[in-house]
Amino acid sequence: MSEVNEKELAEFAAEADAWFAENVDPDPGFMLPLTFMEVGTDQQFDFLRQWQNKVWEAGYLGAAWPREYGGGGLPEAFQRAATKAMRKHNGPIMLNAIGLNWTGPLLLDIGSEAHKAKYLKGILSAEDIWCQGFSEPEHGSDLGNAQTRAVREGEEYVVNGSKIWTTQGNYAKYMILLARTDPDAPRKYDGLSFFLAPMQIPGVETHPIRKLTGEYGFTQTFFTDARIPADGLIGAEGEGWKVAMRTLEYERGARGGQPGGYVITERDAFDVLDLARRMMRGGEPLMEDPVMQDRLMDFIIEIQANRLCQERQKVAPLTSDRPMGLALSSKLMSTELVRRLNEFAVTLTGPRAGYYVGDENAVDEGIWARGYLNAFSATIGGGTSQIQHNIIGEHVLGLPKS
Q: What is the distance between the alpha carbons of residues 139 and 169, in angstroms, rounded to a whole number?
């Protein structure tokens, strides 16, 4: 990676700021998803796909990925500047979350040249949407017990089984798939393999799942004698667990390499502060209540602490005591904070908290109740908060499994 030219970086940042100021539409005419897990209509999907492609073509997504794979070939500081401008102007989320933040970094790290050439540019441009095939209906968080089968037949694998919570599965062209290739392996983890699997082939069906919010975004995927090419195998056959664990490190924010942008719109404590100023109780703004002031200040402090921790984990001497502590904690801290912040916002709306999106009596068109209900998906995906506590206990604090 080349050395950062500060003058060029400043010019790039100014150009990005001007571009997002001009191109972000504050009101597209319909409610945009807050996260990639909420893309439930063709209208939302088409808008976000075009938006990601537009950002990429402008040079503000994948700026630090290699040029030969569709990136800009610039130092990482340039992408950080572009993402900062994107947040400043409240740009919509990037659509292709699994491709951008999971599959792409994995391929850049351990993928073959053929895989990089075939998949990376389409990930950035949003031409090729990716989904994730890890969880299964009967096995909950026990990922190592996955039972979807993949049997080798010549240059193909025949896949049978089912995956659930497949985000954007109905739109995806490809899936990162964890399947069992050796049911007789002495350890269940040894019988799994990791595939880059096509979705738009015979034998693959997706059924949408309607969430508590009334929206869609998740699907269940069924494989019935689906034939996927053997050259989609990542790592050797039987090494899928190791590859899957590496993939989850990207998902949990413990490993870098993502191309920039963001796939979740973060609710800021200052948004809730504005809500507290507008909501009235006993004839006075809630913001005048010292208890509310105290709680809001706690959220503001926690948000700032999380941001500083993200910067701190980039400086090795500041994390020498527990090098992976912050990286393995970030997913748990951020998702639970968002859930609690939305919950607090809903309490501020008082009796009107019972009104939801589409009801004229809902506060701010129901975004706070919607945000609260949707916040639970992030505390489950990538390993539940309970699993995250176990990971921190075992791998950071050195506690025993039992």
A: 19
